[in-house]
Amino acid sequence: MPEIFVEGFATTPWWWEGFAPPEDAPAELPKDVDVLIVGGGYAGISCALTLAEAGRAPLVLEAGRLGWGASSRNGGQVTGGVNVGKIPGGGNAVQNAADQRNAMLRDAAGGMRHLLATIERLGIDCGWHATGRLTALWTASHAVGWAKRLPDLNQHAEADARMVSRDEMRAMIGSDFYPGGVMIGRAGHLHPAKLFGGLLDAARRAGARAHGGTAVDAIARAPGGWQVSTSRGTFSANHVVIATNGYTGGLVPKMQRQLIPVTTHMIATEALPPGLAQTLMPGNHAVSETRRVVNHYRLSPDGTRLLFGGRARFFPAAETTTAAILHRLMTQRFPALRGVKVTHSWGGKVAVPFDYLPHIGQQDGLHYALGCNGSGVVMMNWLGHAVARRLLGDAAPAAAFELGQMPTHPLFHGTPWFLPAVGTYYQVRDWMERRPAATTAA
Asked: What pTM value is reported for the model?
């Protein structure tokens, strides 16, 4: 084992030390279901929670373990609308439609209010730290675009955002790697797996049924609803919600062709020497960069270790390989961590629509909540709740994300064959922008 790994190095998420996706015993499925929700992550469980609390009887089915995917693998960063429409190559998907963009910002801000209110209402102990998020500028030139965005972010997304100078940035994260940044005051970080565990427990207590280890194999129209075939039997359902996001497979081929699954990776360091974590991250902020191939990081909820993530590879690679890449990137930003070892390395899939926007709606009669675009902690919980509200016939939150049919591309059939080439191109662009001649003080 290379020297950066501790003895007992694990390729499972560090988050699972606090809450591991449950291995539930098989349970008998009902013959008739009111609402079937396919996908047992944030969106599916949030949808089930809202339905069950309103007296409906939802059933959530997940092929693997409930919460096994991105809901217990993500970075746990929480913002309300800052990344809506973010395009990997730079810019924003709705930059030329101010009314639409501002409506999305307002709806995304509502999603953050809903999540924090749900955590408080249900008493979920998920390590929520309302310490803000630093958007670290990859180059000084990125400050121009962000400065232009601040008025809309503050007015419509309630972001409490301001520009940060190079000197202030150095003091806020204990590194001189960045030429400046943006402080998003209305943001923070939490323990994503504990959040999922709390939501799952609340949904079940409210009367929802949720089962892992049950793959949905086929959904077909039937009188009055749907005929559903699973790995454990067949039943009928009045309504079906697709909430599979980055793990959307061939069950609904049209939706599979509308979402690009992108794997992001993370590592957890060993517990840091006394005082080092506070020296590196004195404000305990979440951090995300403005580079195209983004890196993000924050302290663990107990403040003892650094959790560092990003897109380490654009094709399948061993967890030791992606860990070594992330460790190198981490120590570039924090040289003081060069001797610190890695305890855990893992990956998870996010769903990137072709228009880079979250989506809710109906397609061929199936309801769906899909397309986190890398901001799933708030967005997927919000979209799942919004779909449930529509099924209940209530006033519809998140209406700005009801955008009609999701776009696709004629050369895409569900396998992102183009990601290695596109990812390499973005990496080269990032490298070119960071050259000394291209970087000036902010």
From this structure: 0.95
